[in-house]
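Reply to dn_fold:

You asked what the input looked like. This is it:
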Amino acid sequence: MITLNLPNPIGEEAWGLWIALYFFLAGTTGGAYLLSVLFYEQEMVRRSALWAFLGVVLGSALLVLDLGQPLRFLNLFLGGLHPGSVMWLGSWFLVLSGVGLLWVYLRPTAKGFQQGVAVLVALVVGYTAVLLMQMAKPFWNASPLLPWLFLASAATAGGALLQLWHPDERVSRLVGVAALVEGGVLLLHLIWTYPAAAGAILALLAGPLAWVFWGFVVVGWGLPFFLEKRNATLAALFTLVGAFLLRYFVVMAGQV
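and this is what came back:
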């Protein structure tokens, strides 16, 4: 298996940078597409559909890379129907959303079709958290809030990506609200999972993962609020950094 991890002395882990990047790409580009369907005209929807399609393709490649054996990924499609498997369902969500996004980009489509694809994209964004919750790790499954945390983060990151390309005051306001929701859900998740995931939470607050957790809180969450009216571009960039840091520490903390 090919592995690559940011500096982190927590010991051996099954999932690392590739999975965090996959979650980041799916959340950010998927969130951008969802918001574009709500707030933008056809051309911006097409552009965000292309971003999201590339995010799905690259994210899937990272997933296969992490598996180490591409045939294991193909088995999800060739091994029959397994609707009770989160991995099987998520793989089909990826394929169907990818096809739909490519169609939106290549062909003029009605708003209803774009919204249908948006539902599939939302399922992909939420599925990444549900996948973690299937594992026997308290930080991932002791609270039901992880999918909502990922969806709120997708709204902030996707909105930040859109703001870099086509600023819109409505999206800016939504990003601010979504960031507040994201922070609140994260706090509730930490409280909910304690003491079952005490080791993971201590690692985040004052242990080997503190650098990434507080990096998210200060740089990726707090600083964008301060910069929003002063430098919107820089605020958006820091928000994207925070979106990655959030997914990285969630992935790593579950393995403490």
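The chain has one domain: 17-253.
Hope that clears it up.
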